[in-house]
Amino acid sequence: MGTIAVLGAGKIGEALLSGLLNGGRSAEDLLFTERHPERAAELESRYGITNVTLEEAAARAELLVFAVKPQDIDPVLAELAPILRPSSLVVSLCAGLPTSLFERRLPANTPVVRVMPNTPMLVGEAMSAVSPGSHATREHVRIVTELLSCVGKVVEVPESQQDAVTALSGSGPAYFFYLVEAMIDAGILLGLPRAVAEKLIVQSAVGAAKMLDEGTGHPVLLREAVTSPAGTTINAIRELENHGVRAALLAAIEAARDRSVELGRAQQD
Q: N vs C: which end of the chain shows fewer Cβ within 10 Å?
């Protein structure tokens, strides 16, 4: 894999650097760029990884990971375009941005792999979807899959599905946090102390996720196993259906998909 440079050291960028170190990569083989001196010094002290300029990253790294905000991509591409080596592998973690944008702005035939990770990367439990651009080979995909396996699970999808992935798993943790937040509030409404309600719901969420992950049954079967005839759970499910929770989730995820498409189109103009 050679030297890896992470361009942008926000939460996702830091999580990837930490995961690579935990996965056995040497700090000497990792670089990062960060425009805020205090943040750069903090990460250098914490991980022993060197903060460099974009020019240094382009000169020293074989693989460059773009972890900047989509709205900040233009100046980064403009600075890199005249100095990036064509053999460099580019990995984009930028939501909504197509591989064609990078291919158009960077040297001809630059291999680009688009990735949609999510924030559980911070605890080594990311779900990342990868899509190769027109110049990326199967070997490039293998390299990126190996890279991301240090911080969670990886699937490959056609790039045409990346906006759907962004809406479903990229934004997905926020939906779960939102639901957990509401359930904690419900526990408080029913008279439980906040700390107790939080402990009950968080552990219930962890346990339920583990059952799903271990393949102990389809979500419908797992839900039905908790739902006794004329019991408490079926009454709760009825209220969720009456309030259109399922329809609201479908609409919310479609809205997130549409926004991802919009972000990509804005950069194409």
A: C
Which residues 6+ apart lie within 8 Å of 265 measured at CB? none
| Displacement of CA 133 from its chain's centroid (Å) | 18
Structure tokens at 241: 């259906």
Q: Which two tokens stand for residue 209?
A: 């996720």
* H/E segment holding residue 147: helix 138-148
Query: What confidence score (pLDDT) does residue 269 get?
Result: 58
3-state SS, residue 33: strand
Q: What is the SS3 assignment for 111? A: coil
Assess contact for 88 and 64: CB atoms under 8 A: yes
What is the 3-state secondary structure of 167-195?
A: HHHHCHHHHHHHHHHHHHHHHHHCCCCHH
- Plot region of 152 (φ>0 → left; ψ -120 to 50 → alpha; else → beta): left
Rounded to the nearest integer, the mean pLDDT of the chain is 93
Q: Which residues contact 114 (CB under 8 A, 6 or more apart)?
A: 92, 97, 98, 99, 130, 131, 132, 133, 159, 162
47-61 burial string, b = 16+ CB within 10 Å, else e?
bebbbbebeebbeeb
Bridge partners, residue 126, by sequence: 152
Q: State the pairing for strand pair 63-66/50-51.
A: unpaired
- Bridge partners (DSSP) of residue 127 are 153
pLDDT in tens, 99-121: 999 999 999 999 999 999 999 99
